[in-house]
Amino acid sequence: MSTQAGDKPVNCDLPALRMQTNYSADDVVAATSLQCFAYIYVSITTFWTYDYACSFHEEWRFLLVSQWTKVKGLYIVTRYVPFLLLATNLYLSFSSNENPDKCRVLDNICSGFGIVSAICSECFFILRTCALWNNNKILLAVMLVTGLAIVGASIAVTFATTAPATYATSTIPGITGCYISSTSFQLFVPFLLLSAFELGLMILTFIRAIQNWRIKSGSLYVVLMKHNISYYTCGFLFSVANIFTSLLLNYAYHAILQDFQFVILAILATRMHRCLWHMKHDSDALVHVSISEMSLIESP
Questions:
Q1: Dihedral pair phi/psi, residue 235, rounded to 5°
Q2: Closest by Cα among 242, 243, 245, 252 to 36
Q3: Which of 58, 160, 181, 196 could anchor a disulfide with 168, C-beta 3.0 to 4.6 Å?
Q4: Closest CA to 115 of 72, 85, 141
């Protein structure tokens, strides 16, 4: 994502620039914002790489041993799209983009990767919620129609906001990256819709938990329920935070939190799916798990 000229510095020291007298305060603030943007994305990339390295063994065990299904394909997309998102943002941050149109294209690519990552992560838990409700077709249809409506509205708002935006680069030599020089508050709308969707799925999970808390006590069912509640809570809180940062803070810091949400949700979705798969394959106690609970892990 791109940064904005009006951002305030966040303890990113540019002592040499502050000593300059031939640059305006706005130039220094813009340069500081671009440097902070680059530093934070390096930190997010390091965190993502560390998580991947820590789970490398179980990751490849899952990829090599599990059957090839649609859910496994969804897992691969969810797992590896954030790599593309972070790589594109790092290129945007550290390359000298003198052409505003190139900045616009890269920013739109980042937005596209972010939307794809969020959609894939949510699809995992739409399927999980449907499994908790015994694959109710009416409920699945309602969730899919609602999800598609939210995706369509989010794409429309995002690209309608960024398309007419003005992009610029820093006037200070040695400062790479580009930023949006105009302010847009409409980007809170996708997160408002996403938070409402997350809240709805969370309520469905709670209703099912209350209905079945005495009937079903299998270990996989309990883990599935806990995973759903944890994921929805995390997604809802991130979305609410993004709403407030979109309205109260400048665009650069909103964009950083936005992509951080996509990365965290992707990590949660893939880790939780691997956990269910390993439970199914490693525990003899799961022989009696119902088909509705198992259908998410591997499709025939």
A1: -65, -40
A2: 252
A3: 181
A4: 85
Rounded to whole angstroms, how far apart are CA atoms 247 and 224?
35
Closest C-alpha to 280, from 118, 56, 69: 69
Spatial distance between the Cα atoms of 294 and 251, rounded to a whole number of angstroms? 43
Dihedral pair phi/psi, residue 202, rounded to 5° = -65, -40
Whole-Å CA distances, 151 to 134, 145, 157, 243 = 25, 10, 10, 17
Lay out the sheet containing 3-4: strands in order across: 3-4, 178-180, 167-169
Residues 6+ apart with CB under 8 A from 223: 275, 276, 279
The total of other beta-carbon atoms located within 10 Å of residue 151's CB is: 18
- Taking only the tens of pLDDT, the chain with its 300 residues reads 544 444 444 445 554 444 445 767 777 777 777 788 888 889 989 999 999 999 888 888 888 888 888 989 999 999 999 999 999 988 888 877 667 778 888 888 988 999 999 999 999 889 888 888 888 889 989 999 999 999 999 999 888 877 777 777 777 777 777 777 666 667 788 899 999 999 998 898 888 888 877 666 666 677 777 888 888 888 899 899 888 887 876 656 667 778 888 999 999 999 888 888 887 776 544 444 444 444 555 554
Are 179 and 5 within 8 A, CB to CB?
yes
Report which secondary-structure segment, H or E, holds 58: helix 56-65
Tokens of 237: 């809180």
Residues 6+ apart with CB under 8 A from 54: none
Q: How far out from the chain centre does Cα 86 lie?
A: 11
Where are the strands (E) in the chain, listed by range? 3-4, 167-169, 178-180
Output the pTM of the full model. 0.79
